[in-house]
Amino acid sequence: MPKKILLVEDSSTVRQQVGILLSGAGYGILEADNGRDAIATVAAQKEGLAMIIADVNMPVMNGIEMVQGLRDKNLASGVPILMLTTEGQPELIEKARKAGAKGWIIK
């Protein structure tokens, strides 16, 4: 069974494009379109995730709030979380790192 990556992105087009790249590299892809649904997806997983890749700006719950929510609920401990966004402000990157994100990818 391939390792799974949770892709959290409100744009279905971006989810599809990134999903194609990751599945082509041999990963299984789980998807959520906001942070709240991502937390529910992680909580329902019986097997561990290889990684979580999340957009920062999403409706319902943004990516940084999602990271903090996962950590507060002790979900996905040890799972690296990468933020995927169009923004690169140092303050925002630092806020994400303090929440528990391990990396930052500019779209």
Please sum up the structure shown:
The protein has 107 residues and is of the alpha/beta class. It has four helices and five strands. Pfam families: Response_reg.
Number of strands: 5
- Major beta sheet, specifics? 5 strands, parallel
H/I helix tally: 4
Helical fraction: 40-55%
CATH architecture field: 3-Layer(aba) Sandwich
CATH topology: Rossmann fold
Strand share of the residues? 15-25%
Unreliable spans are none
Average pLDDT taken over every residue: 92
Helix and strand arrangement:
Elements: E1 4-8, H1 12-24, E2 28-32, H2 35-44, E3 51-55, H3 63-72, E4 81-85, H4 90-99, E5 103-106
Parallel strand pairs: 1-2, 1-3, 3-4, 4-5
Helix pairs in contact: 2-3
Characterise the protein shown here:
The chain has 107 residues and is of the alpha/beta class. The chain has a single domain, classed as Response regulator (Rossmann fold). It has helices at 12-24, 35-44, 63-72, 90-99; strands at 4-8, 28-32, 51-55, 81-85, 103-106. It has a five-stranded parallel sheet with strand order 2-1-3-4-5, sandwiched between helices. β4 (81-85), α4 and β5 (103-106) form a beta-alpha-beta unit. α2 packs parallel to α3. The mean pLDDT is 92.
